[in-house]
């Protein structure tokens, strides 16, 4: 979040300082008065401190001590002296409140100016100023909001400067003041900022975990594509040459061993007939960062849930809650919220797309198609050709193909072999597959899928061309 709150306040001008006379004054009070007249405020402070030690119920001395500390810009001890005076009587309540308001207003405005400098020095100055304003007027929640913002922006600046450790320590200091502003205030901004602190940290940790284990994840994904029924050439294209090949005494069956993965692939002619693992391929993974990420996602979820309850009409908060659910892999909660958001914000292509993915996984193809189509239409309406629209096109094709396969299987089970109504789904997948291939000319899997669709539609020549194209890519002839 890059929003900087720019609020200036106008404070009362403090006037009439030191107009109160000293009646029946002690020697300390008399000396202090003379020091004030000569503007020797340090000496005046020393004399007044001696006076209040001797006469702690002297309201006049406490009030004057507060005034002297104002002149010395010792605002924290100034307030302490004023509080002592007010505890004795309210004789100078108006003057004290005016002084406090003036100090608060000028310090607040200085903090805003420093905040907008966008430098570490500026942020440090703003932190100092807003720390003081929270002390001077602890009931003003804008102080806590701006103090949290100053810490947050400083941490972002440190991060951009490569000072990661410093950034992490600084952002932790933003949490307490932002939480105070959120809990006691009526503004959604502190809640958003606080939730984003946790969400950003969670995303960083999850990305770190994913990057550290990228090779393992890629290998597992690669192995998941080795299935019964695929072409044997795809096995070698994906995994390379087998560690060992054993030919059957009769027929064309071969056993391909990939010892690195504990894998045995049975090949009959040019098709994989079986896939077996001697032991599951599960290399060790350090999940420390993933577990830390889940903890941060859960922190974000708690903030956003409370914020949604408090600000139910804020679209950004509910969107961030959904992202936190997805990051924490709480798919049931994400699914419920997504369905609510699609109803409430029907023009959000991101919500439409994400709901479509859930529906596709649930094999609810018709509803998935509806959401992916809406995603593409909304993207076109925005005049964009975004990545999410490209993904929606791919998933549209996948939805229709899987729908066609499901229908084909259903008809076979019902012994309706002559019913070819399933072809309608393959036909609808075609334009999307062809459109995707315009930008993914070297995607073997897409060419194979297109070939299968053509074959199911009895388009033999087009099917052959698609399969030939896939083979050419495998052989590096594309």
What profile does the largest beta sheet have? 4 strands, antiparallel
CATH superfamily of the domain at 27-91: Tetratricopeptide repeat domain
Helix percent band: 55-70%
- General shape: elongated
Unreliable parts: 1-8, 10-17, 19-23
Enumerate how many helices there are, as a single number. 20
CATH architecture assignment name of the domain at 27-91: Alpha Horseshoe
CATH fold type of the domain at 27-91: Serine Threonine Protein Phosphatase 5, Tetratricopeptide repeat
| DSSP E strands, number | 4
Q: Give the strand order, joined by hyphens, for the main sheet.
A: 1-2-3-4
At the first level of CATH, the class of the domain at 27-91 is Mainly Alpha
Class derived from helix and strand content: mainly alpha
Q: What is the mean predicted local confidence, pLDDT?
A: 91
From the N-terminal CA to the C-terminal CA, the straight-line distance is 46 Å
Walkthrough of the structure:
The N terminus is likely disordered. Strand 2 and strand 3 form a beta hairpin. It contains 20 helices and 4 strands. The longest helix has 27 residues. The chain starts with 26 loop residues before the first helix and ends with a helix. Among the domains are: 65 residues, Tetratricopeptide repeat domain (Serine Threonine Protein Phosphatase 5, Tetratricopeptide repeat); 61 residues, no CATH class.
Task: Summarize, please.
68% of the residues lie in helices and 5% in strands. With 478 residues, it is mostly helical.
How are the SSEs placed, and which strands pair?
Elements (H helix, E strand, L loop, with lengths): L26 H11 L3 H14 L4 H13 L3 H14 L4 H23 L4 H17 L4 H20 L3 H21 L4 H24 L1 H11 L7 H8 L4 E4 L5 E6 L4 E6 L2 E7 L10 H23 L4 H13 L3 H14 L4 H13 L3 H17 L5 H27 L9 H15 L6 H13 L3 H15 L4
Antiparallel strand pairs: 1-2, 2-3, 3-4
């Amino acid at each position: 979040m890059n929003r900087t709150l720019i609020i200036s306040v106008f404070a009362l001008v403090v006037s009439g300082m030191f107009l109160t006379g000293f009646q029946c004054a002690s020697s300390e009070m008399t000396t202090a008065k003379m020091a004030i007249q000569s503007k020797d405020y340090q000496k005046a402070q020393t004399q007044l401190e001696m006076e209040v030690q001797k006469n702690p119920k002297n309201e006049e001395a406490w009030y004057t001590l507060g005034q002297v500390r104002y002149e010395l810009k010792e605002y924290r001890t100034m307030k302490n002296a004023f509080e002592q005076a007010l505890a004795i009587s309210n004789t100078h309540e108006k003057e004290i409140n005016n002084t406090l308001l003036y100090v608060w207003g000028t310090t607040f405005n200085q903090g805003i100016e420093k905040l907008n400098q966008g430098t570490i020095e500026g942020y440090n100055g703003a932190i100092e100023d807003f720390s003081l304003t929270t002390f001077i007027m602890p009931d003003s929640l804008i102080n806590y909001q701006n103090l949290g913002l100053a810490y947050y922006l400083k941490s972002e600046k440190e991060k951009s400067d490569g000072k990661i450790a410093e950034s992490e320590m600084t952002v932790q200091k933003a949490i307490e003041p932002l939480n105070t502003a959120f809990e006691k205030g009526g503004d959604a901004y502190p809640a958003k900022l606080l939730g984003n602190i946790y969400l950003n940290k969670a995303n960083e940790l999850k990305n770190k975990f994913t990057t550290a284990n990228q090779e393992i994840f890629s290998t597992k994904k690669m192995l998941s594509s080795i299935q019964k029924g695929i072409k044997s050439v795809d096995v070698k294209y994906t995994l390379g040459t087998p560690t060992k090949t054993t030919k059957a005494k009769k027929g064309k069956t071969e056993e391909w061993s990939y010892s690195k993965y504990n894998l045995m692939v049975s090949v009959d002619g040019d098709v994989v007939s079986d896939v077996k693992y001697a032991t599951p391929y599960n290399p060790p993974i350090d999940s420390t960062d993933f577990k830390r990420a889940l903890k941060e996602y859960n922190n974000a979820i708690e903030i956003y849930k409370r914020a949604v309850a408090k600000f139910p009409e804020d679209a950004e908060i509910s969107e961030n809650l959904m992202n936190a659910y997805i990051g924490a892999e709480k798919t049931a909660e994400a699914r419920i919220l997504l369905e609510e958001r699609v109803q409430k914000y029907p023009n959000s292509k991101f919500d439409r797309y994400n709901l479509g993915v859930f529906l596709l996984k649930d094999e609810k193809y018709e509803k998935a198609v509806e959401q992916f189509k809406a995603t593409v239409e909304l993207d076109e309406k925005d005049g964009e050709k975004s990545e999410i629209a490209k993904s929606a096109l791919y998933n549209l094709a996948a939805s229709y193909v899987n729908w066609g396969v499901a229908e084909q299987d259903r008809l076979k089970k019902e012994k309706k072999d002559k019913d070819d109504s399933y072809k309608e789904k393959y036909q609808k997948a075609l334009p999307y597959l062809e459109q995707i291939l315009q930008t993914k000319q070297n995607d073997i899997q897409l060419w194979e899928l297109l070939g299968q669709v053509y074959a199911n539609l009895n388009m033999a020549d087009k099917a052959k061309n698609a399969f030939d194209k896939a083979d050419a890519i495998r052989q590096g002839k594309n």
